[in-house]
Amino acid sequence: MNKLQFKLLVGILLAIGLGVFSYKVSVLGFPLVPSEKTSAWNVEAHVAFDGKNSPVKVVLQTLNRVSGFAVTDEFFIGAGYGRQRVSQRITDEQITNEAYDQNSVVIWSKRLADGKQDLIYSAVLRPESAGEMPKWSPPQNIPELRDPQFSEAEAVAANALLSRIGKESADMESFVPLLMQELQHSEKNSNAAFLLRNAKNSRGVVNVAVRLLHLSGIPAQSVHGITLGTASDARISHWLELYQNDSWHMFNVAKGVFSTPVNFVPWWRGEAPLAELTGGKHLQVSLSVVPDAIDAMKNVVDRIAATHPTFFDYSLFSLPVQAQATYRVILLIPIGAILLVFLRNVVGFSTFGTFMPVLIALSFRETQLLWGVGLFSIVIALGLGVRLYLEHLKLLLVPRLACVLISVVLLMAGISVVCFKLGIPRGVSVSLFPMVIMSMTIERISVMWDELGAGKAIQQAVGTMAVSVLAYIVMTNSYVEHLFFVFPELFLVLLALTVMMGRYTGYRLLDLVRFRTFIRG
Asked: In this protein, which residues make up the domain named 7 transmembrane helices usually fused to an inactive transglutaminase (predicted)?
């Protein structure tokens, strides 16, 4: 492979790995820390009414397309009720204005309902980005002016009211507050009182204001929602969304000023009420918003499963829990492998086998480090004694290895029994050691002992153990395990680094120590 292909391969691997990693962190909101917490809100609407032993139907506005949030875990509770979920335009059916958003409603129905009735709608609001509260974002579509559908008498009163306010204002910023002031204090103006004769609450006042704004040439729509806080009881607040000079403006009806909503979640838009009842009486709707500190990782997984199902289906999180636990261990092997490559090719450690220290480190995950090192050393020492005895029998290689393997198994079983009888539970975990690997290690130590002497064999055995300990420290780090399970694309970065180290042919760090006299000369 020439230098151009080499650089191109490394560049592609780094670009893909880091690109996907950055997208998942910055856009999808995957946390970098395993113990990170985030906030979610449990929203519940409790609908109560009295049945009249007749057919009943309840229409309730539900959360839909909340900007900055993912709506998950929706539940509709109603014993004996049929349920259907539909979308409705916020304007009248006669108006075919597709520029307006749609609301989502649930319809509960029952053939006969008598006495106290309770229906519950609950959902969880999950922020799309951790660490900050989503801000209000304007609707994507631009509304058109529509006919306010005033009667002849209402049109006269509306024109008189708008004419008076128009003379007292200079622009939209002063016109809208004056209009809302007149409507909210209608007892001082007969025209406003006439227009509001059928308005029973603040929502009715807002709906009349929207019709007047359309009559005055300002596209507007009402938006009703809740404010996220720490209180369990929630109240619906009403805002006006106005479109003027190619931009959206939000008007706080309660305070009578233009402002940007803070912690405000739009529930529905338009003239419809929160709930409508047919066939019953004494309708009451109570809302509750309860914050909850949840695990950020679980929050992201649940949100991605709801908003990006295709992405979720082809990720490790779609696997069964048992398979996920298995891969959390398997994915640690390449991490130990690249550490081994660095320690061998750059630092200059000598080990028995290529990936033997990584497999030994994996066994240390179950036995813990100190017990693992101790038990491993005991088995190797005893097995080495058996191997040296077999040397006198002049056996061939394969039979000799089989004898060593049998001896290792017997030694491990014996150590487990003795430790169990002595009340040392950690000693039982010696059975988790890779038997074949240990047999090969004993064989290689013995061969090196015969060829290069005891000192060289012990030195390389210590190097193997040192690399295993370092690999264990890295592979048991919770942050490392979290990063490479949540972001498996980082293995492409590891692959690029491994390719780069594979082309390194310079001095190793330990060589600088070995040849320090030559370097000084």
From this structure: 273-518
